[in-house]
Design goal:
about 170 residues; mainly beta; OB fold (Dihydrolipoamide Acetyltransferase, E2P); 2 domains; six-stranded antiparallel β-sheet; two-stranded antiparallel ribbon; about 10% helix; ATP-dependent DNA ligase family profile domain-containing protein; NA-bd_OB-fold
Amino acid sequence: MIARWTGSGSGAAAVGGVAAGIEGVVAKRLDHGYLPTRHAWHKVKTRRSAEAVVGGVLGPLTAPVARVLGGLDDAGRLRVAGRTGPLPRESRPALGALLRPADQRHPWPSVLPPARFGDAAPVEYTRVKPALVVELAVDVAVDLVRGRPVWRHPATFQRVRLDLLAEDV
């Protein structure tokens, strides 16, 4: 689909695309044509805000590199929903201080299947007590894995939500 959106109406057109399930748009300047060797076109992904429960981390618990995220299903079970991209190095120790090691009742396996994150090998991670809620910026792109929705791309960590309980998500 090719559309010409300019001026103040372009934002409204993009919002309409979100409602229709469009993951984003490819944009270019009106005075630029397609040039196969140049990168003059830009992909603009649609993002939305979401909350998730931290159920695990990649890297050490004291300074996690990324977080493994989950949400409650209709039966109240915590299910893996995705992961964050790399966390800022300077904030890792402070974020790690908010996490506690999981006990034996953690609902997730000790190793995640490779397909969960697009890796070729199973993903080893450290399970944590699923009590911390975080706010994220996520793509609207969602895949179904075993009939449950998971974010297709890594989420971007925004902030810790100490005002929410895991049961609220």
